[in-house]
Design goal:
alpha+beta, Arc Repressor Mutant, subunit A, 17 helices, 4 strands, 48% helix, 8% strand, elongated, WH-like_DNA-bd_sf, HTH_SB, Transposase, DNA binding
Length: 381
């Protein structure tokens, strides 16, 4: 049965007013552009009930009691991975028969939606303790300190990666029409590894890693890019170098090399990409490069550098935010091969705005407070 239209209170009052002035049903219907039957129903109800208000008790009776709804909420909040079918069986066991669809609809009405769980690093008790100690020891650092940090990281940029996956609008049985498909390439069609850095003042150098990076190549990349970036970004003499705990970064050889350089190095807790704001920029970069559809690795790198220079904004390393930006920007450009992938990456990296970098670093204390709040666990950053 189709539910009848519910007219506004103002409209119903207008019907009664016109009726009291002596207007007939047909005339009122024409004046208000409302069906004559509806006019009669409104007037009849007013004569019988003395009101135009919507009376309680109208509509379909709820299939679940408030007690059942509270049970569902408690159950999913305690066990987020429970399925609607499992919940249906739970209710059936106590005599309440409803469909899984009704349960899903009820939970949505309560603000609970089925979502794919976010992937986060696996944190051991030792990792959590280290993250918490880091946050507590740095949360009161002045903004001037964070503005002088050079955030660094590596990221992988794929020619036909996950950034190119999206929904399509199509009709039933049209899934395999070319416009509705996502062509795949064996082994992903190629990828490049990038090293990059940024500070509050903007993005620094971006360099492609050739082959599999080892400690020696890592040191060469730092030698070629770090001090030039520090100078270009005007970080001053009291700048701080940040890197994660990748084995190549913490090897005996690299530690000795860094000691000779005499750089001030920011202590870093393991398993903490959420503390590096460059991740956001990587995402933007990858999306921007994908839009440009690079055809080969050369274009991929060029576009990445280009988009990096355009990025407008950045959980413990803020450079993670930049990687996110970069990947997003590259993906939007749709590189067709690894050459284009690299070209697009360089292009997009160069586009990242200074304001984006400044925003990421200026909010760094909030990241640390978030880590303290969750006692070292993963954060939303």
């Amino acid at each position: 049965m189709v539910k009848s239209r519910e007219w506004s209170r103002k409209t119903r009052e207008e019907v009664i007013t016109l009726h009291r002035k002596g207007n007939g049903y047909k005339k009122i219907a024409k004046m208000l552009n409302i069906p004559r039957e509806t006019i009669g129903s409104i007037i009849h109800k007013f004569k019988a009930k003395g009101t135009v208000e919507t009376l309680p008790g109208r509509g379909r009776k709820k299939m679940l009691t408030s007690t059942a709804v509270r049970y569902l909420k408690r159950r999913v909040e305690k066990s987020p991975r429970v399925t609607a079918e499992e919940l249906r069986k739970d209710l059936s066991d106590v005599g309440t028969e409803v469909s899984a669809q009704t349960i899903r609809r009820t939970l949505r009405n309560e603000g609970l939606h089925a979502r794919t769980p976010r992937r986060t690093p696996l944190l051991s008790p030792k990792n959590k303790k280290s993250r918490l100690q880091y946050a507590k020891s740095h949360v009161d650092k002045p903004q001037k300190f964070w503005d002088s940090v050079l955030w660094t990281d590596e990221t992988k940029l794929e020619l036909f990666g996950p950034m190119d996956q999206r929904y399509v609008w199509r009709r039933k049985n049209k899934a395999y029409e070319e416009k509705n498909t996502l062509p795949t390439v064996k082994h992903g069609g190629g990828s490049i590894m990038l090293w990059g850095c940024f500070a509050s003042a903007g993005t620094g150098k971006l360099q492609r890693v050739q082959g599999t990076m080892n400690s020696l190549q890592y040191q060469e990349i730092l030698d070629d890019n770090v001090m030039q970036s520090v100078t270009n970004l005007r970080l001053g003499r009291r700048w701080t170098f940040q890197q994660d705990n990748d084995p190549k970064h913490t090897s005996k050889s690299t530690r000795a090399w860094l000691q000779i350089k005499g750089w001030n190095i920011l202590e870093w807790p393991s398993q903490s990409p959420d503390l590096n704001p460059i991740e956001n920029l990587w995402w933007n970069l990858k999306k921007a490069v994908a839009v440009r559809k690079p055809k080969n690795v050369t274009e991929l790198e060029a576009f990445a550098h280009d988009e990096w220079a355009k990025i407008p904004y950045p959980d413990l390393n803020p450079i993670e935010n930049l990687w996110w930006d970069l990947k997003k920007a590259v993906a939007v450009r749709k590189p067709k091969n690894v050459t284009e992938l690299e070209a697009f990456a360089h292009d997009e990296w160069a586009k990242i705005p200074v304001d984006r970098c400044k925003t990421l670093v200026s909010s760094y204390a909030s990241r640390l407070k978030a880590v303290i709040t969750v006692k070292g666990c993963c954060t939303k950053y």
